[in-house]
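User: My instructor asked us to take a sequence, write out its structure as tokens, and then describe one feature of it. I'm not sure where to start. Here is the sequence I was given:
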Amino acid sequence: MITYHAGGNNCGFGAVVSDCIYQPWGNYGAEYPDPSGQCAKQLADRNTYIDKAGDGGLYQDEINTVVDLLNSPAVKNNKDFRLYILGYAHFFNLGANYCDDISFGALATLPLVGNAPKVSNRLRTDLNDGVERVNRILARVANDVGDSRVKFLDISPAFTGHRFCENNHNYKDQWYNADVWLWNFNTPADDPPADPALMDAWLDGNRFPDNSTLPNYPDGTPIGVEMQGGVVTDGSGGSTGPGPTWFQRPFHPKQGGTHAIADIIISQAIADKIPGVVGSSPPTTGSCNCDENGCSPESPACCANGTCS
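Assistant: Let's start with the prediction itself. The structure tokens for your sequence are:
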């Protein structure tokens, strides 16, 4: 069994989040949806790739990747193999609320240029729409490869009530509330931090980390930024890849989200009766001989669930 979660990087989700949500490196021009601003230009560019038919578009890139995988010797003739193509969770709850007047973006080492971009309902709606269109393409790919071993799993419904900008949450919850299942610019890995003063230092001054430290913690002590799982980098990359640590984690699932995704995968694996998965039927060999009550004594294993093949 392989789980396949790909397409977001191809579509430049990271660039969109940077240019539309955080805007950390300078003047990004007019706020969305003004077409002259960097956010609108970045979204238009990404939408062109998502919607493009044929070579150089998301659909064809995904088809090529999945077909190559299915043709690999270890997979091609393995009837017990399963490929689960995972969709993406919608990032935001929609509708007019407090998020229309707040921003997720600022950086401690740079003076804020212009206005911090608001997380407006229009922006949230259009970013969610991009996720939805990617999910539809991934579902098409799972169908169009013509292999029953390939399935698309929609993870987004599991995140209902746990996205950014939920009506029952508030401003600080967007950073420090385990009930929000997506990472924002958080430090350290504690969610929420053990010391409330750290949260206040982090948010009240609208200041975010310089690579791997929080420079304005009350006692002046630099605080490391940790990735999920406790991996700490110095901002130079290392095991977590290139780029500062704070840039890599936002908009990825937190622990609650990853657990929900795991539950979806496990449920599907059990339903598909993958040999070796707890709760699945024992592996079958040959055909079943069934009587009117379901299974014959000669073939109890392959008829364990009362069905015959």
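For the description part of your assignment, you could build on this observation: Helices lie at 13-22, 38-51, 58-70, 73-76, 121-144, 196-203, 245-248, 255-271. Try explaining in your own words what that tells you about the chain.
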